[in-house]
Each structure stands twice: as C-alpha cells, then as structure tokens.
Amino acid sequence: MKQRHKRVLITLAALASLCFLSLFLLNWILAPSIQRPHSDVPISCELGQWPYQDGLTVIKFSAEAVDPKLNLFNNRFLLRYRVTGAIRSQSGRRPRIAKAQITARLVSTDPYVANISVVPIVDVTEDAGYAQEQVPFDIKLEQVIQTMDWGRNQYEIHCLGQTAAVSVQQMK
Predict the structure, then answer these.
(1) I want to staple 141 with a disulfide (CB 3.0 to 4.6 A). Which of 9, 54, 81, 91 is the partner?
(2) Residues 137, 83: Cα–Cα separation, whole Å
(3) pTM, whole model, 2 decimals?
(4) In the prediction, which pLDDT does 20 show?
(5) Of the candidates 164, 58, 49, 162, which has an alpha carbon nearest to the alpha carbon of residue 120?
(6) Which residues touch 34 (CB under 8 Å, ≥6 apart)?
C-alpha cells in the first residue's frame, strides 16, 4: 500500500513540474522577441546642467513604434525617435550632440495617454578652426517602452517645439 502511494505522489509531482515548465516554454514560444534598442548617442534620464543648449535648433522630429507585436504575453515594444537639426556655438568651441534626455509621465488614464519629452544635449570641444558655423545633426534614438494597460495606448512625444504622436493597441 505504501509503495502505491509513493508512486502516485511521484507521478503527481512529475505532472505538476511538467505543467509548470510547459507554461514557461509556452510563454517563450508565444512572446515575440524585441529588437535591442540602438541609439546614435547615449540616453539619459538624469537631471543636469547643460550650458550649451542656446544654439540648438530642431528642424524635424518623428517617432514610430517599430513592429509592435503586443498580445497577452507581451506588453513591450520598441519606440524609435529621429531628431534632425543644427547647432551653433561660440568660436573655438565645436558643438556636438553628446547624449539625449528622455523623460515620460502619465497624463490620462481614460484613455491612456503618456507625454514623452526628448531633449538632445549639446556639448562642446575645443577647436580653433571652428568659426560659429551651423553644425547639422541627425540622430536616431531607440528605447523599449511598456504599454500602460489593455486597449489603446497613446504617446505624445515632444522635442523642442516639435510634436509627434504614436498609438499602439494592447491586445488580450
């Protein structure tokens, strides 16, 4: 009798383990992989003092959700920003985009709306040959974003007077 109970318990434990592991396997199969974000400059969310921002002009700004495969098992997607503009600085100090600050906040929950702010951060290097001419820039920034809830999720993205909107649908 004891032998029989022991076999039943071992069989039940094996079945429970198999069910548990099959959930992980199912999630791994069904959840799509997201591209790793790649940006032309580092992304920061830190506060800082940026004394060279005065000569920064953004001419064109765009944002897009890159192939969002949102479903029951996946609520993350890649958001790509493209910032084009020009920078001017004092003679002898060549400007460049050193990094970008990206911050986000939830504005509304019905419908879900988030405000995202993108700010290119200017740094300068000593260059005796630089004579206050405009230096053009075109940077690509990418980050993985998480949806806020089921249904439609809206993102309003701002970059120095330019605005872009992205909307994604989180399915069950």
Answers:
(1) 81
(2) 8
(3) 0.79
(4) 76
(5) 58
(6) 74, 76, 77, 78, 144
